[in-house]
Fold:
Amino acid sequence: MNAEKGTAAPLRMTYREACRQAIREALAGDPKTFIMGEDVGLYGGCYAVTKGLLEEFGPMRVRDTPLAESAFVGAGIGAALAGMRPIVEIMTCNFSLLALDQILNNAATISHMSGGQFAVPLVIRMATGAGRQLAAQHSHSLEGWYAHIPGLKVLAPATVEDARYMLKAALNDPNPVLIFEHIVLYNAEGELDPSVTAVDISTAKVRRPGRAVTILAYGNSLPKALQAADELARDGIDAEVIDLRVLRPLDNATIFQSVTKTRRCVIVDEGWKSGSISAEIAARLSEDLFFELDAPIRRICSREAPIPYAAHLEAAALPQMPHIVDAARRLVRPA
Amino acid sequence: MSDFVMPSLGADMEKGTVVEWRIKPGSAVKRGDVVAVVETLKGAIEVEIFEEGTVAELIAKEGQEVPVGGVLARITRPGETAPAQPAPQPPLPATPQPKIPPPIISVTAPSARVKVSPAARRRAAERGIDPDRLTGTGIDGSVTLADVEAAPAPTPAEAALPKAAKPRWGFEPSEMRQAIAAAVSRSKREIPHYYLTTTIDMSAALHWLQAYNKERLPDKRLLPAVLALKATAKALRETPQLNGYWESGAFRAMERINIGWAVSLRGGGLIAPALRDVDRMTLPEVMAALRDLVARARGGGLRSSELTDPTFTVTSLGDRGAESVIGVIYPPQVAILGLGRISKRPWVVDNQVAARPLMAASLSADHRASDGHTGGLFLDALDRLLQEPDAL
Amino acid sequence: MSDKVHLDRDHGQHLLREMLRIRRFEAKCVELYQAQKIRGFLHLYDGEEAVAVGVMQALDARDAVVSTYRDHGHALARGVDMGSLVAEMYGKVEGCSRGRGGSMHFFDRAKRFYGGNAIVGGGLPLAVGIALADKELRAGAVTVCFFGEGAAGEGEFHESLNLAELWKLPVLFVCENNLYAMGVPLEEAEAETDIYRKAAAYRTPAEKVDGMDPIAVEAAARRAAASIRSGNGPYFLECRTYRFRAHSMFDAQLYRTKEEVELWKKRDPLPRLQTWLVENNMLSEEELRRMESEIDAEIVAAVAFAEAGQWEAIEDLERFVLMDEAPE
Structure:
C-alpha cells in the first residue's frame, strides 16, 4: 500500500477499505488486539469490512461468534478488563440493543464504580443508518442514544480519513469507544492525504469554512451538508459545514466558535428529532450561546417513524440535501 | 355583620379543624386577637382575626373540619346591631386559586411583540438603540444583528432617554396591553362581581377644599381626589372585608390599606400603583404621595412592589371623565371603587331641587369575599366621611 | 495446587475461621444497617458461607473472581480487606470502590476481584471475556464466576456457557442455588430445576454439590480447577445451598415458611464443621474462643477504620467516568 511506503501521492480508497485497513493495522500492530463478532471471519463481515482478515490473522485473532450479542460484547468487556484490546463488531446498531445491558451497566460503569481500579479499553464497531432499503430493524441511527451515556465515547466517522484512522485512536483510548459506521458510506470513495497517519477523537472539524450559517452534521449527513453548502454558495450564501465526528464528548468549543461567527445554525441528524443528539446540541447553544444567536436554531432530522422499506418512503423519512438548503436559506434570507 | 372564615395558612392548606375556640358569643374581638386554634396537616396553629367587633355566633363547632374559606363565626361590627340572622351558609368548598401574577412584567404576547434576535438585542443595548423601532429583515420579520448595525446612531437625546423614559423594568405598550387583557379577562372569568352605585353630594367637600386651597400656593393645594382617597381609606377601616385578597379559595384581609390609584399612561395603557397606608396619612401627605406616584408612573421609576402592593383600587376618570365608572376588579383584590366626574346636576335638598356638585361612586366587589350589605356599608361610610371634610 | 482436600487440623480450622468471619461480619452489617450507617440494598450471605469458602480454597493469586450483588462472602473469602469493605458500605473513600459501589459492588484489583455485579446474569459474559484474555496473557489462570440460580433464566447465562465451552475458556461457573430468586421458588421459574444439567447440555463438565458442606465444595472446586488448568475448558458447579436471612433488608419472606428455614438451619455448615472438628480433636475450646475473639477484633478494627474514613470530595464525582489511562 502506498500509504505505508509514505509516498506523497494521495491514495484513493473506499470507506470500507479504510475500515479494513484500520483493522488490519491494529491486528498487525498489537498482539493484544483481536476482532470478534458475527460473521467477521469466514463470511468476511456483513458489510465485507473484515474480508480477508481471517486468512491473514487466523481464527484466534478474527473470531466468529455465535449470535449472542450480550455474551460476546460482555466477553469483550471482560477481555479489556483483563488486559486485551478487543475490537467487537456488532452487525448493525439495532442488534446492539441485545447487548445494551453489557454496554451500559458494565462497559460504561466499571471504571467509575470501581473507583478507577479498572479500565475498559474496548472498541465496539457497529453499522448504523438508513439508505439501503433495509427497513425498520436494520436502518436506525442509535448513536444519539449511546451519546447519552457517561463513560462511553461515541464516534461517527464520515470521511475516508476518519474511517481509516479513528480506530487507532480508539484502541489507544483507555475507555470504551463506540464507532458508528454508516452503511451508505461504505462504498463512498475519498482520498487519503499520505501525510496524515492519525486523527484525534476529541474534536469536531470544519469541513468547509463559511460565514453566513453553520451547518452541523455527522455520518452520512455530512456529504449531504457539503452538497447543500455548494448549492447555497450558488445563491451567494456562504455556509460553514462542521463534521461533528465525536458525539460524546461533544466538542463544544468548535461548535460554539463557528456559531458565534455565523450566529445561525442548522443541525442535521439522521436520528429521530425527539431526544436526539441534535436536541442536545440545540439545548447547549441556547444555554451557552443565547446572546450570540441571530436566528432560531433549525434541525433537520429523520421523520418520526420506523424507517420504511419502500425507496420513496425511506428517502422521504431521511434528512436530504434540499431540506438543509431550504432551512439554511430561510435563516439567512427569510424573504 | 361579617363572616370570620377558615383562613389559608399555607399554599397547600385546603382545610383545617377547629380544635379550640378562644372566643364565645358576646366576646369583643379586635384585629390581631387569637380567636381559635386550628389543626392543619402541618400541626396546630393559632388563628388571628383581622377585624373588630363582637362575636355574634360561632358557626363551626370544636372538632369540626372546615374547608379554607368556610365560615367559622359571625362578627357584629362596632355600632352595628345584629340583624336577623340569615341561615348559616354551608362552608364554601375550597377551590385553590392560582395567584394572578403582578401586572405587565410577567405577561408577554409573542404575536404582538417585535421580534429581536438575542444577538441583535444585546448589540442594540450596547449602541443605545431601541431595537423595537427597527424594521426587521430576519426570520419572521425579526430584527437581526445586521439590522441593528445598519441603524443610524441614536441622537444624544434618544441615547439619554431610553432607560429614563420607561419604568425600570422596561415594559412595552404592547406587553402592557397583554397584561391588562390577561388580568381583566381573568377577573371577569373568575370573579363574580356585584355592583353598587351611590351619588355623593360633594358640596361640603368642595366648599372646604376651596377654603383650604385659597390660603395656599399652588403646589400645596389639594385635589378633590385626595379627599376621596382619604375617605376611601377610612371607609375601608370600617369594612375590612373589602381590603385584601382572594387567594386559595379564601379571603385574606390585609392590615395595611394600600390604595391602588389607576393612572392612564400617555403612551396608552393603564397602571394602578399603590399609595401605601393612606389611612395613616394627613391630607397634604396624600397629595404629595399622589403627585409623586403619578409622575413616576408616567415618567418611569415605579418599584415593582408598588404594583403588587394595592389592597384595593380606586379609579377616577377625572374632570373630563364620564359621569360614572364601574370598574373591573384587579385580582387578587376583591373590590374597586369607580369615581365619576363631579358635575353640577339637580339634587333634592330639603325637598327642593337644587343644583349641586355630584359624584357617582360605584363599587365593584367580589361576591365570594363579601356581600352587597358590606358594599353598601362601605358606600354609606364614604358618603358620610365626605360630608365631614374637616375630620379627614 | 493440589486437586485433593487435605483436611488437617490447620486446614479444618482455616475453613471454620473463614466461614465464621463471614457470619460474624454480616451480623455486624445488620446492626450497622439498622443504625443507618449502611444504606442502600444489603444482601446477606448467611447460610451460604460454605460455597465461597470452599471454592476459594482452589484458587491462587493469578485467578480472577466475578461476583454478584451478594458479594460479602466472596470478597472476604478472597482476602479483600475487611476494613475496606465496611468503609465501602459506609460510602467512604477508603472503601474498596471509593464508596461508589456500596454493598453490591465490591471491587479489588489487587485480588483480581472484578466486582459484585448487580445485574442478574450480567457477570457471566464478563467472566468469559476475562478468561479469554487470561488464556492469552496468564496461562493457567481460572476465572471463577459466581451467580445465583435465578441467572439461569437469563439469556446471558446460556450465551455465556455456550461461548465458554465453544472457545474452551478457563471459567469455573459456580451456581449458588439457594432455591429462591428473590422470592420466586426454583420450581416456579425453571422447567429443569437441576441447573447443572443445563451446563451439561453445552457439553461442559458439571456437578451438583452439597453447598452446605465446605469440604465437599472445596473438593469439587479443586477437581474443577484442575480440569480447567489442564486446558479442558470451563467447568460448572451447582452448589445447593440456602440463605438463612431475607433476600435483602426489606423483605417479609412471604414466599417461604419458618419451618423450611429451620429445617435448613439444621444443616448450617458452621456448627456442623465446628462439632466435627471438636469431635475429631482438631479444635479445642480454647482455640475456638481465640478464633472468635480474633475475628471480633478484626470486625471492631474494620468498623473503626470505616468510622474514621473520609467522604470523597464532591469535586471528584466525575473522576474515572473516563480514564486518562488504563491501569497496568
